[in-house]
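MODEL INPUT / OUTPUT PAIR
PAIR INDEX: 1
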Amino acid sequence: MFRKETFLKNVFSIFLIFPFFISLDFLITKIHGVRGFSQFFEEDENVGYINKRNFKARFGGPLDEFTNVVTLNKYGVRESSPSPCTNKINGIIIGDSVVAGFEVNDNETYVSIINKKCIKELLFINGGVRAHDTHMSMANIKRLIKEYGLKEEELKIIYILSVNDFYENDDKFRYSSLKSKFGSVYDGDFFKPYRNPFINRLRIFIGDNFYFLTRSILLLEEFKRIRNEKIFANIQDNNLSNQSNDFRCKRAISIVNKYFLEKSKINNIFIGFSPMFLNPQALDESVNYEKCLRRNSLDSKKITVIPFSEEIKSLIPKGKDPSYLTFKRDFHLNLQGHRLASKALEKIIMEQILFD
């Protein structure tokens, strides 16, 4: 039976307790030095947004499976341990959050590990930026070449594409939080998706100052997103057809050609697919995506699709669930994942990229 007095008492108790928890949240956020998500990025008119230049801060907090310091140089590039053999930059590894590797320390990303191995005196820039799609990744290559003053014809460029890119490449408003604050590029044009300015500023303020409240909001949004995507998948295409796969692969290849290769002196760009490690089936699907990209790049003289997912799959012990390579809740690569990815990429560089 509903009792008005009990209900009002509970509501009153919540109003008394809530300010205490908010104050405690603010205090813990400042003590731990946790930075708001948006503080790691800045606007760039040619790319939309990039990693923040000359920035160093802690990424992750008490409720995350990681908490480490991220160091970004004056170009907005993730710092790593110096290469033991060369200081001459002659390669770029481009991509999104998996390449950036904010979830591990500066010297633990697979780009950093590759640089430490000094493979035939190759030194790669870590061009990973969270939530970049193919449009933004190609624009970021141009930016890095220009700002570093690199010679296109001498560069080895590797683009590690993620499954998110397939959807974002044709949906300019997907993942609009960062894009609405800083901007994005789509088919070469700069734009900002519209979001209510008041709500945007409020979200940023909460994200910068209240870690636990932010985590709660993100968990709710993630739950809604997963639920909606499951509903959409059941209605439209529970199992993606070869035709829809080919369309997405063809679109990604066409963006690479349009943005970059047709008017550049780059000899070749190597494209790999970032594996999905949720389960063995997801890893198999990653290999299929890579084959799809290869099929649709046969007419592109400057594009070579490398067997990144396939090589990683071959390195995982038979019968072992590949999810051990990612964090349990976050699904980005953990230290084991980055180490395995570096082994796979090292083999590809030695056997394929160096002989291009």
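PAIR INDEX: 2
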Amino acid sequence: MKHASEATVPDPQPAVDALIPAGSRNEAMDVLRGFAVLGILFMNLIGYGLIGSDYVNPLARGSISMPDWWAWAFTHIFTEQKFMTLFCLLAGAGTYIAAERLSNTGARVWPAFLRRSAVLLVFGLLHAYLIWYGDVLVTYAVAGFIPFMLRRCRPRTLHIVGGVLLTLPILLTLLIGFAYEQLPPIAHQGLNAAWTPEPALIAAEEAAYRGSWLAQMPRRMADAVLVQTSFLLALFLWRAAGLMLIGMALYKSGFLTGKASIATYRRTALIGIGVGLPIVIGGVVFNEMHHWNIRYSMHYGSLFNYCGSVLVALGYAALVIWAVQARRFAGLRDKLQQMGRATLTLYILHSIIGTLIFYGHGLGLYASIPRWGLLAMVVPIWLLEYVLVRYTFIGKGPLDYVMRRVTSLRPRPTAPDAALAPRSA
């Protein structure tokens, strides 16, 4: 299975940009969004360009070349799940921001939240079934209800509940690993097909996505349903909701808005990256020692990155916010801030560009470019998207604008309350 790493998230999520009215933006959060939406492309390109099993197992099709192994190691250690984590943290912050600003205008918060969730869900479903099945917007639309209901809690409570939710997939993964030998044969067949598919299954997937857009539809729909049911309930929902709660707590404490001290950001970066990366690397060593055996690597081995990625993402966030607070890298900051104002639009644009390159309705290069070649494509796509952001309507974030307008819709106030009406974004 492949999905948007880091969204496919939203990340806020890609839609978190749409929650903040123009003229009231926070530079640190905009720059962090831009950093996240660019970084998520590392894993999404693998999702667009390789078979699903390649996303989770570098040896899914047998041996691997040394350049491809190093390309896999780079993306796994530095990008996989890290940027998805950043999007989830920002999603939690965005949920709180939207609720508070609506509340301050006298608007009813729940109807606005339900509208926003419904539109985000529609965007996600259209993305998954018409463009790329590895969508994360559906996950954010569903998971967002948990942090929204707990938005009044103190940061400490949000951290605790978020941590508890993050542990649920860990417990399930450990349980499956412990009980692996006792699983029924049909379960073994399904897991083996996802981890090391037979040549016939690989050929069928390649043929499906190299076909026309209509010919891809049955396979894309089946893959999207799998992502939005089994994987959502077992993993994505709890991880996303837990991280969104932690992001809400980090916003309330001032960490995500640049209000913490320089020392706090330096210490967080040092601990997050300094501890998180060794954990992730330890998982690589563990999997290599077990020769990527499905029982060990698919279950126990995956937990190293699951846990380490949270620490690394926090370290990344601290570095980015420190750069904003310390006024470093002005040119790069400005560019990331521009990208960060159109994150939902850019997230979908990633998929449009990626599927046009790899799927049959475009160049048809699906599963024909090695990992190192996919890695080399990241910067050219970044440059293309920056040009589009800088010189076209893409920079205005049309999808983000739709989300913002839908969220802000409310009944026209009566004359005595007219002064409470929010300014249009």
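PAIR 2 NOTE: The chain is about 70% helix and 0% strand.
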